[in-house]
Structure formats: structure tokens, C-alpha cells
Amino acid sequence: MVTLIIAEKPNVARKIAYALAEGRPVRKTIGKVPYYEFTRDGKRIIVAPAVGHLFSLAPKTKTYGYPVFDIEWVPVYVAEKGKSYAKDYIKALATLAKRADEFVVACDYDTEGEVIGYTALKYACGVDPSKAKRMKFSALTKKDLLKAWYNLESTINFGMADAGIARHVLDWYWGVNLSRALTSAIKRASGKWMVLSTGRVQGPTLKFLVDREKEIQNFKPTPYWVIKMVLEKNGQQYTAVYEKERILDENEAKRIVEEAKKGPAFVEKVDVKQQNRHPPVPFDLGTLQREAYSAFGYSPKKTLELAQKLYERGLTSYPRTSSQKLPKNLNFRSILQNLAKLPEYKPFAHELLGKERLKPVEGKKDDPAHPAIYPTGELPKPGELTKDEANLYDLIVRRFLALFMEPAVREIMKVIINSNGHRFILSGARTIKEGWLKVYGKYVKFDEAILPAFKEGEPVKVLQIKREKKKTKPPARYSPAAVIKRMEDLGIGTKATRAQILETLYSRGYIEGKKKIKVTPLGMRVVEALERNVPDIVSVELTRAFEEKMEEIMAGKADKDRVIEESKEQLIKILQQFKEKELDIGKVLMETTGTGVTTSKENAKRAGTVKELSETEEKDVKKTIEKGEKTPLVVGKCPKCGGDLVVRYNRKTGKRFVGCSNWPKCNVTYPLLQRGRIIPTNKTCCDGAPVVKIREKGREYEICLDMNCKDWKKGKK
DNA sequence: GCAAGGTC
User: For the site Interaction with DNA, which positions are given (predicted)?
Assistant: First the structure.
């Protein structure tokens, strides 16, 4: 009797073997693939790894046309270039399977893990997946793994496997067919062979970049005035700003300056507050990618590659994680003792080792498969790391050290100066206790604006009061790190794929610019063509729909094959229509000459149907505004233009929503629940989105108006 | 030669 345990990856196979073995497991290899042999309770056990997906979907016949739905599972190295390493792993599993009579899947307990286990059993081991058992664990500790071993599930989770398989097939159907359709369209119009692509994640990602591009192209700067007061105290000059930060009317600005100049100016109020700033949370991959971008300018892809290298050298933990929590049983002291051997970390590590209790801060996000990224305590040898690797290592180590340190204390000072009835605000801020900034201040900067002491009622020596003309600025272009964040917020892609998908958009020629991403005319046209003909593929709703289907399959409420069949029927219709218009679509895609600057109206015109809808909608909103709702309810400030966010009603549907008072100059809107009374709260959440209180019969709750808010469900309590 | 998802 020999049991073969299949792990998701080599590193996990090793951990499982060491956890389950009585004594030391024996490490052996087949080719380059390591596996482990040992006994437990008299039972002979082998643990062998997959390396992620060993099998992938591929068309049965090698034709280049579309639609194509006839696909099958093949080894990854057959379907994709550069995956030859997988060959040895499949071979090793096949060999070991011959020696085994019992099979246990021990991949990550999620849909992808279930697919990895299922396909490995079926296609590498040549066994019936329904004969295999399942080890189910959420941490790779000895305790958890032993518990999982003694409480084996009698089968793998077929609901999960089916949901995962459906996800693979649906992504393939939509992505490959529409990519072929786009490629074919441009070929027919231009005669040129040029690979175009789209998919469930690429589509919406390119779409939000295009939306931003259009906002920038259509942006009309409006002038505004800022009034400043230059004053002197103890021989030093300071600048206070008028309480209303933006004045849209020049005459009003002039008047305020003239009146304020008359004086006398005195200190009306001094407000000094202390604020605790807690250390930042442990790194999940997305947060690390953003921080490395802001600290070193590394692209998300580069950061993942560097983190992978550090992980392979054993210096830091597994990087593809969405957790912001450290393992509960991690030996913090021993890691700190090791880090103390490096002179740059010695003082911080020693300070922490002097503490009685080491309690790191943790973030909200969690990941069943892996903890947050932390230094293992293994140290790099001198000269072992490249400059980039050393930078990232330093970032990870300092973040780790910061987690255990005291909060920083900031003093925030606000001096209100009154001059002839007009108020100016002089703001100061300084760090009065460094806390964790000692170790991490290198990577995060707080403003230091130190003010002298002011007394309420004291006269102020004003040197100058002036108005400055400014212009509103268009919204900023996305950086690669900001794209990853937006994808995270939208819930598209995964921590391991987002960076790669962004690279794909670059390589297709849809976007350009290393730090400030600009959509190329081609990228604009691709979104136009898709929006007009296959709006689903540029909408995040496709992901939502897939997720719903997968939930149903997992719960046994839907049948995998039925779901696949429905998607196929839907696609057949879409692709047929696309094919009929292929030449025209190709011509649109070719219109990539000129400045690339088009108005949204022009784009809408080109895109056809979109135009009609949006114009009537626009009119409706306009009428609603013109009609003048009686003093609309203000629920907050517009995060984009500073206007008022007010409750509005769609004329046609009567439904309420929140919009910016500067419409149509500003297009910020938020959806609103249709029930209950709206009560403003003065609070904001996601990127300045207002939080409102909803009062219904018998209950009330606060809610962030950003639908993608992570606390949405929680806030609803 | 196209997707998105694992992992090296």
C-alpha cells in the first residue's frame, strides 16, 4: 500500500513531507523533480509536486479561424512556449503513480488548486479523479498539515473542480475567439498580420485606461484663484491660505483681497492636535508592488520577478499572496536575531528584541494559501544580491521591522488668522515622535512644516495678501502600479496575473509610457470596436457573471456543461455578427493615424449605438438640473473637482443617484440605494467617496457610495 | 497564436 500525495508546488511538497514524516523524509528525484518518501503509522507515503497548472486548454484542430469551441486538456508545454520545465513534472507524477494505489490531492484549497489536482490525476497519473482523497488545510504548519492528514476528505471537491474547469473553458472561449476576430478584422482591412487580443481581464483593464484617456483629452481647464497671505513672525515668513481654497470668480477674489488688506489681522484661533500614525500593514503582493513602484520606480512585473528571486534564495517568504497578516506561529525573535547581524538593521532589531511582547500590526486582507510577505531570517551573503534585489529586500525587511514598532506621533497645527472678517489658515505639521518612521522613514515621507507658537488674539504682521491664478488640471494618467490597484479594486485578474496582463497590453501596442500610461490610437479603436459589438468583453460584469456561475456550480445549483453550452450559444451569435461586419470593424481599427485625439462624441459616433443612449441620458440629467430640484441635498464634496455632491433623480426612471453639482463639466456620479432616507455624514471613504447614512424603517446604517468599496457589506451591517 | 490562471 503506497499513498501518493500531490502538492501544488515543490516547496509545499517539501513542507508536507516534513510535517507528516516520522523522522526525516527521504528526498529523491526523477529528472530534476524532487519528491519525498517516508512512512507514517506504518503506511508508505510519497509526496510529489505539480508546478501550478500542468495541463492547459488547446484546440483539437490547428485551424486559425473562428469560432472555435472544440478544445481539450493538453500538457502545458504543448500549448505554450517556454513551459518545457513542466514536462519533467508530468513525467515524475506518471512514474510515481504506477507505484501508488492510493491518491491524495493536497493542492491549495481553491478552484484553481482543485483543477491542478484534478488534471494531474486524470492526465498525468492516469487515474480516475473520483478515486482520490483530499487533504484540506489553510496553513502550511506541521499542526495544520497533520490535522488535514488525519481528517482526509473522502473525495476531491468536484463542485470546485467543475467550477474551475468552467472558468478555464469560458475564458478560453471568450478570449481566444474574440482575439481571433479582432486579428482577422484588421487583417482583412489592411492586409497586415498583426496580433490583437482581448479577454475577460484585458478588456475591462484597457477600457478604464481608455476612459481616463478620454477624460484627459476632453478636459477643459477652468481658471480659479487662490488667495494667500504672507506673514512674518520672529523674522521668518509663513504663508496662510484663504479658508475657501478655490475661488471661481476673479472679481470675488479681488474683492476679498482688497477687504482683507485693510486689516487688522490677528490670530483668531489656534488648534493643535496630536495624531498617532500606526505602522503600515504587512506586504501582500499588490501593496509591495505599489510601494516598490513609488520607492524605486519598479514596474509591478519587475517587482514580482525580484520577489520571486528573493523567495527562491530563501530570503523572503512566498510573494504571490494577498494576505496582510503574518503567520501566528512565526518565530519573530529568531528572525530579529538574524536580522540584527546586518549592521543596517542592528539598532532596530535590538530595540525590538528588548520588548517583552512582539505584536505586529496586521491588515484586513487574508489569503488562505499564504501569509503576508516577510523576511525569513536567512541573510544574503555579501555581494549575493543585485542592486535591485537588495533594494527590494531592504524594503521588505524595513517594513517587517516597522510592524512591531511604536506608532509615530504627529502634531497638526492650524492657526486661523482673521483680517477684517476674512479668515486665512496657516497649517503646520511635524513629527514629534518618530516611532516606526525610524526604520521605515526612508520609504514614507510626511510633511514637516514647523510653525512657531501663536497665541489667540495676538496681532499678525502681514507682509502681503495676493491672489494667484490657477487652472484646474486634468485627471492624472495611470501609472503601472495604479493600474494594478484599480484591477484589484475591480476584482479582475489575480495577484499573480495582473502584472502580466498589463504587459500584454503594452506588447499589443494598446498602451505606451513607462510611468504615465497613455492609450495609443490602436488601443482606443479596439475598445470602440468591442464596445459597439461585444460590450460584455470590456465590462467587469463579465467577471461578475462568471463568478456567479462558478458559485452556482460549486453549490451544485448549476451544471458545468450547461453553463459552458450557454456561453457558447451566446458567443456563436456575437461572433457571427462580428464576422458579418468584419471588414468595417477592421477599417475602424485601422484609423490610427492623426493625433489620436478625438472627443467622446466623435468616438461615440464611430461606435454607433452608444451615442443614442448616452445623449438621451445626458438630456435627462440636464433637464433634471434645469428643472431645479428644490435645494438638492448635499452629501459631500466631489473628490474630482471640489463641487458639491448632491442627490439627483433620473427624469425618465425616477431613480435617485448622487452627482456632482458641476455637471456637465464634471461627470462624477455614484449610484444610490433607492430605499430609505439619505442623511449626510461628512465622512468620506474610497478616494473621497462620500459616506451617507441610510435610515429605513426600524434601522439605519452608514454606507460608502463607492460600489467597489471593500467595506461595503460590512458597512451595511 | 489568440485567455487567464497556476508556478519556475
Answer: 53, 167, 171, 320, 508
Give, in Å, how far the C1' of B8 lies from the CA of A523: 32
Residue nearest B3, CA–C1′ metric: A175
Span A87-108, pLDDT tens digits: 999 999 999 999 999 999 999 8
Say if CB A560 and CB A632 are below 8 A apart: no
pLDDT digits (tens, 9 = 90+) for A392-431: 999 999 999 999 999 999 999 999 999 999 999 999 999 9
Whether A589 shows a pLDDT value over 70: the answer reads yes
Cell (9 digits) for A479: 501609472
Task: Give me the helices (H) in A299-408, please.
Answer: 300-312, 332-339, 346-353, 387-402
Residue nearest B6, CA–C1′ metric: A52
Q: Give A654's pLDDT tier (boundaries 50, 70, 90).
A: very low
The candidate with the shortest Cα–Cα distance to A394, out of A449, A462, A344, A358, is A344
Name the nucleotide nearest A199; use CA and C1': B3
CA–C1' distance A221–B5 (Å)? 43
Q: At what angle do helices A521-533 and A560-580 cross, to 10 degrees?
A: 110
Using a pLDDT cut of 70, give the percent of chain A over it. 87
Phi, psi of A631 (to 5 degrees): 20, 85
Decide: A311 and A317 in contact? Cβ < 8 Å.
yes
The H or E element that residue A251 is part of is helix A250-261
With CA of A308 and C1' of each nucleotide, the nearest comes out as B8
Q: How sure is the predictor about A114, in pLDDT bands with cuts at 50, 70 and 90?
A: very high
Nucleotide B4's nearest residue (CA vs C1') is A171
Spanning CA of A180 to C1' of B1, the rounded length in angstroms is 9
In CATH, which of 3.40.50.150, 1.10.460.10, 1.10.10.10, 3.40.50.300 is domain A165-218+479-600? 1.10.460.10
Q: What's the CA–C1' distance between A154 and B5, in Å? A: 27
Bridge partners (DSSP) listed for residue A27: A36
What does the pLDDT read at residue A355? Answer: 94
| Residue of A298, A318, A440, A478 marked catalytic | A318
Radius of gyration of chain A (CA): 30
- Is A298 catalytic? The answer is no
Pick the CATH number of A2-156 from 3.40.50.140, 3.10.620.30, 3.60.20.30, 3.30.420.40: 3.40.50.140
Which nucleotide C1' is nearest A65 CA? Answer: B2
* Domain residue ranges in chain A: 2-156, 165-218+479-600, 223-279+408-471, 290-402, 620-716
Tell me the CATH number of domain A290-402, given options 1.10.260.40, 3.30.420.40, 1.10.290.10, 3.30.70.920. Answer: 1.10.290.10
Bigger pLDDT: A181 or A656?
A: A181
A594 — pLDDT class (breaks 50, 70, 90): very low
Contact by Cβ (8 Å): A664, A678: no
- Give yes or no for residue A623 having a pLDDT over 90: no
- How is domain A223-279+408-471 classified at the CATH fold level? Topoisomerase I; domain 3 (2.70.20)
User: Greatest CA span in chain A, whole angstroms?
Assistant: 97
Mean pLDDT score, A319-347: 94
- Report the pLDDT averaged over residues A484-500: 94
Q: Is the pLDDT of residue A166 over 80?
A: yes
Annotate A133-150 with b (16+ C-beta within 10 A) or e (fewer). Answer: bbbbbebbbeeebeebbe
pLDDT at residue A604, rounded to an integer: 32
Q: Give burial (CB, 10 Å; 0-12/13-18/19+) of A60.
A: exposed
| Long-range CB contacts for residues A709-714, cutoff 8 Å, separation at least 24 | A709/A685, A710/A364, A711/A685
Q: What DSSP assignment string belongs to A568-592?
A: HHHHHHHHHHHHHTHHHHHHHHH--
